[in-house]
Design brief:
2 copies of one chain form a homodimer. The first copy, chain A, is of the alpha+beta class. Chain A has 2 domains: 300 residues, 3-Layer(aba) Sandwich (Aminopeptidase); 123 residues, Alpha-Beta Plaits, CATH 3.30.70.360. Helix content of chain A is 32%, strand content 22%. In chain A, the strands form 4 sheets. In chain A, strands 1, 2, 3, 6, 7, 8, 15, 16, 17 and 19 form a 10-stranded mixed sheet that branches. The first copy, chain A, has a 4-stranded antiparallel sheet with strand order 11-13-9-14, with helices on one face. In chain A, helix 1 crosses helix 4, helix 1 packs antiparallel against helix 14 and helix 12 crosses helix 14. At the A-B interface, strand 10, helix 6, helix 7, helix 10 and strand 11 of A face strand 10, helix 6, helix 7, helix 10 and strand 11 of B. Strand 11 of chain A pairs antiparallel with strand 11 of chain B, so a sheet runs across the interface.
Chain lengths: 477, 477
């Protein structure tokens, strides 16, 4: 069990160019999951990865689903029964490359360019998520080459539908609970704090997404013949949605904040000392002025405070020129970002009650839920998280940052709910990687540090004192 | 000059079936002005009317315009120089018949059906405006047949672009001021009070139509990554538009009501005694509850009070399902109905100032005017209006109602501004005529009473004591 890490890291250095070549081979396959025209490409990408995992000793298999193929791979042992069992998750599908004419080189012709952090690889999927999933596959390859085995039990799960809503994921997890059983899941689909500082994302906000339509007159009315004497759903909906927040940015739905937890002093201290560059954050959106809930920092607002945003609204005439109608209805899509302990059902019910208390005369609401998910918080005292932190620290020479994330990563909740264990979000992307945009890139330095970190974390997992000393601590809160 | 009316009315009765046939011939031509595919149909309709006017002795002419043909026709005399000169306006173009599958018979196959008021004619354009313009042409025909002449000077102006914004109307008026000179204009494109009660519309509201876009972030943002910490233009626009009116329905733009006149006691009395059926008015919109400016009746709200309506709004994601974005901008179309004395420019400026005082941080407004028109009010003491009222009263056996109209009829303002005289809005439609909708109809009783009223009004015009005793009184207010 005491297999040294140093030769594994040396192997990664020695094989770096070959690792880049292997990643480029994967990037050349336009595995766009949302477009049926790329069906043979997603199959080709799945086959390439399965063959690659098999070539380093995994029992690897492609599974058909109603959507894109799912890959599972098991390292056959001989890690001892006491060793932890880690499930590695990644996705081999990519976003469509549109708008193609905004790319400086072909989106599926991986290109090396120089940047402020050295060489970078430019291609669709470079960081999301082909480059990131290759960090752990390359770590496995190096361990296997040097020691002939991996130091812990490993299962790999690679999906091909992450960019198109993962319709097959939960049914697959349900149908393969035993084959996917593990102690913890490692997901590499997030970012570092900056080029020199690794990070683990331990808080993800949840989501409630609702579509509300306010119906008034039986049909669009002539605004001359009726204007001023009948209810106008567009005026009413704007007025009512305008009341969702007060002038201090506080959501006005009763009980909305009841379950919201304040940060611990330790977290608040850590976040205050992160050196978060608020101006750069706002500039990335073309903005200059911090706004939001009064008395909170920007980082609190996006990581640990709930939010309420209108994502879309439409009513009446939206074409060229003037059409003088009073619309029969007005519709909006709105969503709430939730923090740990907030219950999506309770928030949804609160919104419905808020709207119903404001129903204008002769109007009715049509309210549609587009789903919800609870926030996720990984207990920072988890021994797996501590092991991952040690692995990152030994690789980078500095402590990783424990980050929040304003968005949701639904697979975390699915794994928790169906398979019953934690996920650790250890990723190697940077903010400026242009994920989902033209000229997506992955810094080769991030790729290198990612492979080495994955190798080091495997070593730390193997060195954990006792397997299952602490039960999983993820709170799907 | 003392040509009796009675034989003219007898002639209209005797020739009623032929008049219906002539109207049906016009209705069979699908003269849809907005659709270039119907270009030959609009030309055919213009030719038919020109030939018809020539056949009863008019000097009739078709004029090409950049759009649809314009028809002018002059009765060559011999009405004495002291006789008034009346310009009759109508339009021969029609709205598209869509949705065609909602019609019970072909929109251009005029069909007679029975209804609560006797026989009705069903076709696109039956009342708007082919049936109405034929009321005065048939009155001319009967006068000419019985007396060999008309009792006053008459010019006819028929346009073919009323349903598509009248782009050629004002240039044509400008270019033909002398040929179109008259003392007053008769327009038959409005309604009666009810099947038994004629009406003259003497107040029309004006309009200011504006498109406002609020620009915030430089691009659509991920609502997870940014939500709660950046400005959301959709939330901001709804909040700001929600402040346009207070809970009493009063527009909150400073000085908005400064120039609004209260009704005279006489008008208020007349309106209060009209027996306006508020429940039926609301039911026609599928509603039950009167709403609007507090302390006003529904009829005041639509005839004599200004209004503010959102006609359209859009922002962000409006497709199926959920997309978690913070939109970069939000846009609305809004319009104000104006009453006499309100200045469109002042109202527009007031709105701009209202918005600018509420500009959210880092946002900017893009404000586009889609035009404006002042309200119109015809002085009720005009001798032409009094003559028209006498003609209607003698035909129907009851006093006509002086009505307001919540909408605008732009030709009234154009004639006032360019030709320099009043219009009298004397129409014979009913509220339930389904103008612009499938199964548009015109009651044959309205057609008959319309022809007879037009004949009687000609007689009353001829009997006016002195031409130009009173100058035109229209106030484009």
């Amino acid at each position: 069990m005491t297999m040294p890490l140093a030769p594994v890291l040396e192997r990664i250095d020695a094989q770096f160019d070959q690792a880049v070549d292997r990643l480029c081979a994967l990037l050349r396959i336009p595995s766009v999951s949302t477009d049926p025209a790329h069906r043979s490409d997603t199959q080709r990408a799945a086959r390439l990865l399965t063959d690659d995992l098999a070539s380093i000793g995994f029992q690897a298999e492609v599974h058909d689903t109603p959507g894109q193929p799912m890959i599972t791979a098991h390292w056959p042992g001989p890690a001892s029964d006491a060793a932890p069992h880690i499930l590695y998750y990644g996705h081999y599908d990519v976003q469509p490359p549109d708008p193609i004419d905004m790319w400086d080189s072909g989106p599926f012709e991986p290109t090396i360019a120089d940047g402020p952090h050295g060489r970078r690889l430019i291609a669709r999927g470079a960081v999301d998520d082909k480059g990131q999933l290759m960090t752990f596959i390359e770590a496995f390859r190096a361990w296997q080459a040097v020691h002939g085995e991996l130091p812990v039990k490993v299962t790999v799960l690679l999906e091909g539908e992450e960019e198109s809503g993962s319709p097959s994921l939960e049914p697959f997890l349900e149908a393969n609970k035993e084959a996917l059983a593990a102690d913890v899941c490692m997901i590499s689909d997030t970012g570092m704090w900056d080029i020199d500082t690794p990070a683990i994302t331990y808080m993800l906000r949840g989501l409630v997404y609702v579509e509300v339509a306010l119906h008034g007159p039986s049909h669009d009315l002539h605004s001359g013949m009726y204007g001023g004497a009948v209810i106008n759903p567009a005026n009413e909906l704007t007025r009512i949605l305008g009341e969702l927040k007060d002038e201090r940015g506080v959501v006005q739905i009763p009980k909305f904040y009841d379950d919201v937890l304040e940060l611990s002093d330790a977290e608040a201290d850590q976040w205050a000392n992160l050196g978060f560059d608020e101006a750069a954050f706002l500039a990335s959106a073309g903005l200059r002025t911090p706004v939001g809930e009064a008395g909170r920092t920007s980082i609190e607002r996006i990581w640990s405070r709930p939010a309420c945003d209108i994502n879309g609204i439409w009513s009446g005439y939206t074409g060229q020129g003037a059409k003088t109608i009073i619309p029969a209805r007005a519709t909006a899509k709105l969503s709430f970002r939730l923090v740990p302990q907030q219950d999506p059902g309770k928030i949804y019910d609160g919104l419905v009650a808020f709207l119903n208390r404001r129903t204008p005369p002769d109007c009715r609401w049509e309210i549609k839920s587009h789903g919800g998910s609870r926030a996720v918080r990984v207990g920072t005292e988890s021994p797996y998280l501590e092991a991952a932190m040690r692995g990152l620290e030994s690789t980078f020479g500095r402590k990783p940052v424990l980050m929040g994330c304003g968005g949701s990563i639904p697979v975390v909740g699915s794994i928790q709910r169906i398979l019953g264990f934690d996920s650790l979000l250890v990723g190697f992307g940077l903010e400026d990687d242009r994920v989902h945009s033209p000229n997506e890139k992955f810094e080769l330095r991030c790729f290198e540090m990612g492979m080495k970190s994955q190798a080091a974390i495997l070593s730390e997992f193997a060195a954990m004192p006792t397997r299952r000393a602490t039960p999983p601590r993820t709170t799907v809160a």
